[in-house]
Write a structure and sequence with these properties.
Blueprint (H helix, E strand, L loop, with lengths): L8 H6 L8 H49 L5 H37 L3 E3 L4 H12 L8 E12 L2 E17 L5 E17 L8 E4 L4 H4 L8 E2 L5 H6 L1 E4 L2 H7 L2 H13 L4 E7 L2 E7 L16 H21 L2
Antiparallel strand pairs: 1-2, 2-3, 3-4, 4-9, 5-7, 5-8, 6-7, 8-9
């Protein structure tokens, strides 16, 4: 982002809900001193990484050159390349550790200000909730899973749990010679919410942004039928299936349908799904990760990073506000 397009923390806060307004003071008083120290740690780690980069170049020239001249084969130069890449990667390990520590500190600090419990490595509850999301056809089945950034607490009196998920499927292919090759394919990367509903639902209602997703994740079931709604714009963008037509129309009032359309804009067209069942609302959003910051080579203490984090937190809250009404 160019400097002319950068947003100040104050301008970001002006666009967020009112309960975010105090974060300008929180940043100056609590976050900025710690982030400044971590930025010095990042610079030191980056300096060490540059030294390792020089070693990597020397490894490439010396090992690769000797391998080619001694073994008379260009393929032997691969040894030098592997050595160089390994050395360079090792050098960046320290930078990665510092930036990860800063990310965790920022997310946990912001979460605590809102009375949320933050777990970088999610609890068993998150794994159970992920399985519930699978049962409700919000996420596909998986062979390998990585969960992170669990948040547990309340938003405006509405209990909820949030976490990020990366699901992968194991694929095995066999070539004409009978040799097999295994690869891992991402089948879902995004966020999941489980929200306590204000009432117990008599039936089950499922909403999806991406057409056909329920059948893709398993048959929708004979007891479900397409909900009959009165908003043609909503029906163009979302599919709704329910076991209770009356309850579905009660849930999806014009205001709620407009809120879902607004979510489409707020999350930049990411694939949104939700299920109302029992006394819970399950939701999933497929389309990337939150709380990622600026990467290894950007300043840790840049207030713009804090602004981006607050925008992501506000997005988490926004969905709870919409669904938990």
């Amino acid at each position: 982002m160019s400097s002319s397009n950068k947003k100040t923390l104050a301008s970001v806060l002006a666009e967020l809900p009112e309960d975010f307004s105090e974060f300008a003071t929180i940043y100056e008083k609590d976050l900025k001193p710690s982030l400044a120290d971590m930025e010095q740690d990042r610079l030191k780690a980056m300096s060490r990484a540059k030294t390792y980069g020089v070693y990597a170049l020397l490894a490439l020239l010396i090992v690769g050159g000797l391998a080619i001249f001694i073994f008379k084969s260009p393929l032997a130069g691969i040894v030098g390349i592997v050595a160089a890449v390994g050395t360079a990667a090792f050098g960046l390990t320290g930078v990665h550790e510092v930036t990860k520590k800063a990310r965790t500190m920022m997310v946990s600090s912001v979460a605590s200000k809102f009375g949320l419990t933050y777990n970088e490595e999610p609890s068993a509850h998150a794994n159970n909730h992920l399985q519930s999301c699978r049962n409700h056809k919000l996420v596909p089945s998986w062979d390998r899973v990585k969960l992170k950034d669990e948040m547990v607490g309340e938003r405006n009196g509405r209990p909820f749990e949030f976490f990020q998920a990366h699901l992968e499927d194991k694929r095995t292919t066999t070539d004409s010679d009978g040799k097999t090759q295994t690869s891992w394919v991402t089948v879902f990367r995004g966020q999941c919410w489980v929200i306590d509903a204000a009432k117990t639902f008599h039936g089950t209602t499922r909403i999806a942004r991406d057409a056909g997703i329920f059948n893709a994740f398993g048959a929708i079931g004979d007891k479900y039928s397409r909900a009959k709604l009165e908003d043609p714009e909503f029906e163009k963008k979302f599919e709704v299936y329910t076991t209770d037509q009356v309850e579905a129309r009660f849930l999806l009032t014009p205001d709620v349908m407009q809120a879902f359309l607004d979510l489409e804009t707020a999350f930049n067209g990411s694939k949104f799904r939700a299920t109302f069942d029992g006394n819970k609302i399950y939701a999933a959003l497929e389309g990337g990760e939150l709380f990622e910051g600026g990467g290894l080579f950007s300043r840790i203490d840049d207030p713009e990073k804090v602004g981006e984090l607050l925008v992501d937190i506000a997005s988490v809250f926004h969905l709870v506000d919409v669904l938990g009404k």
